[in-house]
Amino acid sequence: MGASVTVYCLENLTDYLEFERLCHDLMSLEGYGNIEPLGGFSDKGRDAIHVSPTTGTTVFAYSVREDWRAKLAEDSDKIRRHGHACNSLVFVTTARFSPHERDAAVRSTKRDFGWDLKLYGVERLRVLLDAEHPHVKENHPQIFMQPSLDATLEHGLQQTDRLLVSYATDDKALAHWLARRLTAQGYRVWCEQLSLPESGDYPDDVNRAIRRQVRHVIALYSGSSLNNLEVMQQHYLALSMAEGDKKDFLLPLKVDDFEVDRLDRATASLRFISFAESWAQGLAALLEKLDVARCPRPLSRGRSMAVSSFQEEHVVADAPEPLFSNCLQVVNLPRLIQRYTSPVGISRDESDELQLEWPHRFVNRTTFLSFSEPSARAKVTGQLRPDGGGSCTETSNLERIPVPHLVSELVRRSLFARCHLAGLEYCAQTRLQYFPFGLTTGNRLRLERPDGTRTWVNSAGERKYRRTSGPEYYRYYLAPAFYVRTDVLDGYTVLANVRVRVTDTNGTPLAVRQALSRRKHVCRDWWNREWLNRMLAILQYLADGDSISYGVGQQRLVVSARPWSIDAPRRVDESRPTEPCL
Fold first, then answer.
1. How many CB atoms are located within 10 Å of the residue 564 CB?
2. Does 297 lie in the same domain as 342?
3. In a shared domain, residues 528 and 543
4. In 10 A of CB 380, how many CB atoms?
5. Other C-beta atoms within 10 Å of 321: how many?
6. Strands, DSSP E only, in 444-570?
7. What is the bridge-based pairing of β-strands 273-274 and 250-254?
8. Any domain includes 582
9. pLDDT at residue 581 tops 60
10. Are residues 477 and 501 in the same domain?
11. pTM of the entire predicted model
């Protein structure tokens, strides 16, 4: 089909608020997981923001106007005029633009405003919605006319679009997990003993289906399958058809370390995709193979279809279960935000150095806002003196900054200073405060769980990372990160996150890509219980009793060290055997 239904819907949409929601969903999937929607008709140039300790503040602006350059300039000017924090700008538009226009916009934004610009035009949106995240469209029927889309997809559907997963009974867990993951990616899948919507019933005559209705046979080879005559017949049939333009008709998967000498010569010569070491790595290799083979992905709602194949009643019990969040209630807020002025001035770099001992907001070289009195070094450096201020609850703006924004920032910076007092160190390269080696006895943090049991976790450690060139050793350090919100619980709420800093054995931070792989390595067995334990251990280390505090008297900040929790009326019955999930 020449025209794109997705592009047509985007270029002819009339519901701007729904377009904002669509953009929020896509940006969340594109790496901005903590995106905070702000849009509406008085957004002052910002439809959403994303704050990261590593990349700073990203501002999002969306447009359905043809004159997208004018809209980009208007929003950029509003962002600067209102003094919004902005390190980079993401501009999403339904307009079309040339490579030259894109490059010119990126250059002018950097030159005029000092921000990095990331552009999403209608064609880039089409790729995201049709190829990478097709399930998003079903959540926005006001934009995408789902019946029309389904009819269009069905019209172009060929009978040989299905994948058939051939497996032995002992490999059922992997086969069903794989079938669901492929369905979530948009593929139609036949898998015995598994009903997947819109894939149709599993064929009665499997051999006939392999000859006439299947695009690829995904064959699971294992010790069990080699002993199953029926399964091996399916594999041999698929292998016999794998020639010419169908050379990739059979996609063999290695499930375990079976004896290779049990294979015939033709099968032994195949290039197996290994699932023996890692299902995730095997799946990635299989998806790449299917992509190279141009296997069609006709399902626009694949992910929801895969989820619907689970039977909820088999894993849910009618018994209450506590659910723990990472939300901490601000118990006591300082009464005032105090203004301090400096006759000699303090630079931004000097201000950043003072944050560890005196949490404050840098307004300009001579004006600073804080909950607390300056430290001795700050007083000497800037000859600071008090100069009024405002109430945390009754003042609306201070130095043209909304007080709720100031309070949120000062609460976060106060917790930053509290961590410094507790012995945590700051890494300027990763912008993380972390537990250094030797801060605690044996590098252990002790904790008491909500059920009263006591245990411990490592605050830092050294691990071995295996590589083909030989093992490498690296170090990891727990690093708390705090964010403040006003839309979660009543008043101000602190969100406590657990980060991991990764270095070589000399303490030098690794490059981003290396650090990411080592972080995945150290965290690979950390599930909900392990993450909760580490969060509780950090909070209890920083706390005096049940709360974390900073400051004195009426200017004392007090944050609960007990995460907010609720009791769910039903719980997951972990005593029942379950299949691997998506």
1. 15
2. no
3. yes
4. 10
5. 13
6. 444-448, 454-458, 460-465, 472-485, 493-503, 547-550, 557-560, 565-568
7. parallel
8. no
9. no
10. yes
11. 0.51
Q: Which two tokens stand for residue 504?
A: 């070589």
Distance CA 101, CA 114 (A): 18
Query: What is d(CA 347, CA 354) in angstroms, rounded to the nearest whole number?
Result: 11
**344-402 pLDDT, tens per residue?**
999 999 999 999 999 999 999 999 999 999 999 999 999 999 999 999 999 999 999 99
Query: Which pair of structure tokens corresponds to residue 462?
Result: 């050294």
Judge if 553 and 490 occupy the same domain: yes
Question: From edge to edge, which strands make up the β-sheet containing 493-503?
Answer: 460-465, 472-485, 493-503, 327-332, 557-560, 547-550
User: Based on the number of CB atoms within 10 Å of its own CB, is 166 exposed (0-12), middle (13-18) or buried (19 or more)?
Assistant: buried
392 plus 413 within the same structural domain: yes
Q: What is the Cα 65 distance to its own chain's centre?
A: 30
The residue written with tokens 């594999």 in the block is 235
Q: Could you tell me which residues are beta bridge partners of residue 120? A: 92
67 within domain boundaries = yes
* CA–CA separation, 548 and 190 (whole Å): 55
- 369 is written with which tokens? 């806002």
**Contact (CB, 8 A) for 183 and 302:** yes
Look up residue 464 and give its two tokens.
């071995």
What residue has token string 């201000």?
A: 351
The two structure tokens encoding residue 55:
């990349």
Per-residue pLDDT reduced to its tens digit, 130-139: 888 888 888 8
* Cβ atoms of residues 541 and 448 within 8 Å: no
**Same domain? 199 vs 106:** no
Q: Which residues face 336 on adjacent strands?
A: 391
Separation between Cα atoms, residue 509 and residue 513, nearest integer Å: 11
